[in-house]
Amino acid sequence: MSFNEFGHLFRVTTWGESHGPALGATVDGCPPRVPLEPEMIQRWLDRRRPGQSRYTTQRQEPDRVEILSGVFEGQTTGTPIQLLINNMDQRSKDYSEIAEKFRPGHADITYWQKYGIRDYRGGGRSSARETAARVAAGGVAREVIGSLVPGASITGYMVRMGPHAIDRRRFDRSEIERNPFWTPDAVAADRWSDYLDGLRKAGNSTGAVIEIVGSGFPAGLGAPIYAKLDAELAAAMMSINAVKGVEIGDGMAASDLTGEDNADEISMGPDGPVFSSNHAGGILGGISTGQDIVVRFAVKPTSSILRPRGTITRSGDETVITTKGRHDPCVGIRAVPVGEAMMACVMLDHLLLCRGQIGEIGAGGIG
Amino acid sequence: MSFNEFGHLFRVTTWGESHGPALGATVDGCPPRVPLEPEMIQRWLDRRRPGQSRYTTQRQEPDRVEILSGVFEGQTTGTPIQLLINNMDQRSKDYSEIAEKFRPGHADITYWQKYGIRDYRGGGRSSARETAARVAAGGVAREVIGSLVPGASITGYMVRMGPHAIDRRRFDRSEIERNPFWTPDAVAADRWSDYLDGLRKAGNSTGAVIEIVGSGFPAGLGAPIYAKLDAELAAAMMSINAVKGVEIGDGMAASDLTGEDNADEISMGPDGPVFSSNHAGGILGGISTGQDIVVRFAVKPTSSILRPRGTITRSGDETVITTKGRHDPCVGIRAVPVGEAMMACVMLDHLLLCRGQIGEIGAGGIG
Amino acid sequence: MSFNEFGHLFRVTTWGESHGPALGATVDGCPPRVPLEPEMIQRWLDRRRPGQSRYTTQRQEPDRVEILSGVFEGQTTGTPIQLLINNMDQRSKDYSEIAEKFRPGHADITYWQKYGIRDYRGGGRSSARETAARVAAGGVAREVIGSLVPGASITGYMVRMGPHAIDRRRFDRSEIERNPFWTPDAVAADRWSDYLDGLRKAGNSTGAVIEIVGSGFPAGLGAPIYAKLDAELAAAMMSINAVKGVEIGDGMAASDLTGEDNADEISMGPDGPVFSSNHAGGILGGISTGQDIVVRFAVKPTSSILRPRGTITRSGDETVITTKGRHDPCVGIRAVPVGEAMMACVMLDHLLLCRGQIGEIGAGGIG
Amino acid sequence: MSFNEFGHLFRVTTWGESHGPALGATVDGCPPRVPLEPEMIQRWLDRRRPGQSRYTTQRQEPDRVEILSGVFEGQTTGTPIQLLINNMDQRSKDYSEIAEKFRPGHADITYWQKYGIRDYRGGGRSSARETAARVAAGGVAREVIGSLVPGASITGYMVRMGPHAIDRRRFDRSEIERNPFWTPDAVAADRWSDYLDGLRKAGNSTGAVIEIVGSGFPAGLGAPIYAKLDAELAAAMMSINAVKGVEIGDGMAASDLTGEDNADEISMGPDGPVFSSNHAGGILGGISTGQDIVVRFAVKPTSSILRPRGTITRSGDETVITTKGRHDPCVGIRAVPVGEAMMACVMLDHLLLCRGQIGEIGAGGIG
Q1: Interface TM-score (ipTM) > 0.95
Q2: Which of B248, C150, C273, D13 is close enough to B281 for a disulfide, judged by CB 3.0 to 4.6 Å?
Q3: Chain D neighbours, 3+ Cβ pairs < 8 A
């Protein structure tokens, strides 16, 4: 696996910078004969697109995806799919400050330290814009999953913003598409709206927690030891900009449980094993159980803020920086469709890996 | 990367089952001319070895490592290093129950569902015994790191057991080696001792949280996008048995911060940039800053417990299981050296990747 | 390594079809701070470009390369480089015959058998047009090699066309650029010209042998066992369309030698070991010796010919096919710059791998 | 893919030195529930074993393979299979000459130049002994192939020794097992016997050409562009010690053909397409046609010979070397089972890759 690539059989390499001419994803290993039209990908990009509410960056990018290869007469051919998104709103601005000063909490300094060169315009390669390419690739993955596991679905939503978590008793899936935060808790949406307005006006930002649930996937996906499904999902989510923690099922709270409480008891249902609970998040020993796959990740607050912070220049001089521009006060909002896309890519990759090694998915019958 | 392998240039494939004749690690890509003797690896295995206190499994395994290849006259040759650990204490016992019934919370059921066959003796491939091979490989990685970055160190310790967290004001690094829990808080060690005795007598178990800190590593390790240092560390830790959550720096709590609070301000020290804090856990944009690399992971409670739990048999019949045998009441204890080993492998891999791509580590000077 | 990708650290994924909107190469892992302008790549593409003599296809393609990412202010940044070449001359023609009938000797039938779908326009993914993307990637590799090993060079030329081999006593390197066949033997060029005119008029085609020589590369590149430099070169060359054989040094003729004759004797020169001969083609045990790296490959004749051949349709009906259109009577001619590009990619990849594992290239001093 | 590993899904890492305690192969990605006993592997090792005739090294090695993991109750489990072969005949001898002087034509000098250290005893890692591990892995691959494609077979034989080729009109498959050269031409076997006796007495050695044929494999294996079946086979064969050339089908002679002659015409048989000839060696566009897969490779003469050759020492002093010891006068003989093993590994890997990506092998029906 190379630096900018993920996946074993379904492989995605993203490329491009925030303010270059274009960005995109090279998708290799896609199964053939899956119907694919740009619109099927575009709808996921539209969810991630900036400028849709006052809570995301006001940069205007249509994010229109073009399919340059790998599709013929509306079907995938099994050869590489090139997904291209032109950058439109490369607003000419003065980058001299960002070019010289490192934003605290931002990749500015590490890119410089590593490479000795960086495209500082809009964050270059470290910009959250790179995630548009992931969402496009995830759109392809979703179509293939749909053809392989018709009942499967992947849904993401926000469960916490700053100190304010949702109340799971108010969980309403249909609410997710109705508010700008992709949250299933309408009351939380209202509270977050106020909270975020306050932060935005103060030139500040906030972190968030996103949960992604994959439903309808069969048992048997994932493999020991380093291709464990949870290890792959953890890498996939942690590779998203600004993510600092990843949890499967009970996650960090699994530490607090006793073995007795943690054990998801098993009984026999009409279609196979049924579990009394899902502390495991649908994964045992790195392999899916057939339950919901439950992943959560924490997104740190945007580091490009108006609040002045102490920093240094490339010359090593100490100074203060305030970052003007069109930044997301809660970059976690747009991370929802990105997390979904990453789960789609991982799940598809493991569906293909499993049938490659075993030939059928879920070889071991019970009962 | 294949199923049981991790790393890009420094590659480790672990192999072996709990109750087979042996297990081990195949290490490919190791730099040549690094002094390596079995003792250098053995001391890390000794830390992980079972049966050293009443808080770990009473299985007696000397876990002696043999180097079968890749070392000549006390130095690595640059060719594959085969590390072999014979299994000694394969106590003959009656496995018929485990062979037939699935332990709730255990990989029993998913291995069966995936492969349609499994070596059920002692958990087979899904046993925590597999981690001995990781510790051995990590021992090799440590020696190479020592030759490349003399000041670097990797230290793990337990920061929480069940509901009981350490008090960081009592953090004393020298305490770590003095108690059976590898914890830097002597008061916590006492409390945990009581807590664990109670659980053990009740035939129950508990989860834990481990923290691993890498110090003295240079800035510039890691790479966008999927080879981000934090993504690789997350995968590495999540691939350890029973791990359900991984955090970098502030981890899940990053969600609660504002951008202002999260920004680790930068000033100029005598040897380069100095940060006012380390919310980032030493990684920005997936690349190391030169600060301490801070990773935490949660280990769920052992699923093999004496407490009766409802389950099913391979035939689909509902039943109850209580797991007798020599199981760890807190498998998190032995996860400490395993987490250290995984960090060692990841850090070395990225040291090699960085000099492969760039030729020097930390290309971009400041000041 | 995925289906359409090659390389370990310097990784190239080519994408695109003959008659799609564009094709290109995604290059990941390129070292940073190497000067790179489109013109540096374009000059290699211009060598491969069709329609430059009556001996290559008359399709008119400017083959202009665009750099969409990974370069900033004229230097590589270390992030993925996207190289895009738009297809211009997608002449509207009637593809119904090729869509239905399989050309003997062509990938038509195997693509169909494998995928159950194929872009039949102009050969789709199996078209020699794909090699334009390799030449572009090779252009990047050449610039990086130039920065790492200033004296290194890679030169390809044709040594045989059909039954007519060159006479090595007439080998004149300066002749290579003077004839349309890239051959160092001016007399052979004249003979081939007549031979090819005859075949072209007869609607037939011919095979050829190409030799690629890499000079000035250090000893120590390549590694046991599957990353042997010769194994990688063999794969690289065999992956070029229509190649059926690959030789290193004496190649197939090595079978005829005795050990005494085959041994390239070693003496000591002012700058290190000197060899009395180069039967080995510059590679021993899969690792470079510092001598010229010598690779040859045979290209079969173009399968798209006007001569009628028996075949079947997708429905299984037997029929006859004659392929009209703008095809190369000797596709080997344009394989010369492609072979050079593949060697450039392999050599760079191994320069990076070697310094990744060992830190310096050529660790073992002699004398 | 790392240095000592090959394969995508069925991955083999070989390890070990000629005179270390043991060598072996780590096999990851093997499908589960395939019957596997040591004897199934042993029979292939027995074919490669040295000391079976006066034409191979007289080193006495039983080459007994042990299965240390990945098999349970006589079936593969889908987890890594560790194959171990202990080295028995590590005859104590004086290695001081080989330790100091480089054998011309041998990897001695390049290992030294690359790594600055090498296990010189018996060639260390560069010894042909490494191929025992490949044969063991190939034995596993053969059993899996047998379970997936019952009619498939892989057969190797020698077609040329030194200047003496077989006469294909005398081709008799049953002859292969009857002579010490694995040749299908009984007359050639007699001639080679005399030829080799002469060389052996003169302290010299000779090269050879081996052909490997895979029969009964389905159409659709292999993939553009770098995972072409022929590219993979070329890499696999070129990675065998002493191999200098690889051919598919007509190989280097494809250069001499016209397009008309090279086209394997297609007609319709009762079970699908039938070809009038097999110039292509069963591969078009990198994908199998369903015909015999035909690969040939040339093995250079053993470089360890009694004839004196000029060389240098590690100190750079010029000297002469004659290599005493138990060396193969024609290492090509034992390369026959090795070439078979490599083809088995490649074919199985592509069977798994194909069903991974496509789900069925040979998706596109004809007729």
Answers
A1: yes
A2: B248
A3: A, B, C
